[in-house]
Amino acid sequence: MLLAIDVGNTNTVFALYREREQIGQWRLSTDRERTGEEYAALLIQLMGLKGLAPAEVGAIVIASVVPPAVPPLRRMSREFFGCEAFVVGEDLDYPIRIELANPAEVGADRVVDAAAVRALYGVPACVVDFGTATTFDVVDAEGTYRGGAIAPGINLSIDALARAAAKLPRIAIEAPERVIGRSTIEAMQSGIFWGYVGLIEGLVKRIVAEYGKPMTVIATGGLAPLFYERAGLFDHLDPDLTMAGLLAIYERNRERVRAGKRKEQG
Predict the structure, then answer these.
(1) Which of 2, 31, 29 is CA-nearest to residue 15?
(2) What is the tally of structural domains in the chain?
(3) pTM above the 0.90 mark?
(4) Does residue 103 belong to any structural domain of this protein?
(5) Annotated catalytic residue within 6, 109, 129, 137
(6) Is 109 a catalytic residue?
């Protein structure tokens, strides 16, 4: 089985695949101080609830935007799963061409998403990923990653508003029916939600206009379902897009990654 790990700034997602079928997925908060032993204790316990054991894992692939999380995950992989973890962008090359001035600076998750879109939905395409930051990533008609835009995530905006304005509380993210709020809470919910819808629609329309041709637009990330229908510009909703990209990268490098398991066993 493949263990795919996506380390984001807020959450770390673990998914187990038997061939192309996902048989388990677990989400932990990302903690830069978490040790390999702590990762193992949590993950092995969660796997056990589904009747799965570490010995069944034959390969591990990681995409991370949090560099301090990688060494303890490598240690967890070696000591508890008997695998050498392969990190996208370090041990494994990106599967698509990156047309940027400095390709090394792009986040692994953005390129993995772009690779998944090329394989699953076709190109040209724009991926909107609702995470700690909201990212907009462009893959051109040749399948080349062309960059995009990064905006603060909606939760960051809520936190900043509550910290900076003493009389404004921290609110939950909701989709209000009215734009004109009749209370402070309603006004904040409207400004945050519908303001974000305006940001998304405006940026995507500008990206498509600048590219000059129609594009497939895909929503992914934890908050994607909240905006998918209301933004009115998405063609697809795929919350597991990054995991699909990691699976595709593993399949492209299957023999190399499996060799890491054989080396550990040897």
Answers:
(1) 2
(2) 2
(3) no
(4) no
(5) 109
(6) yes
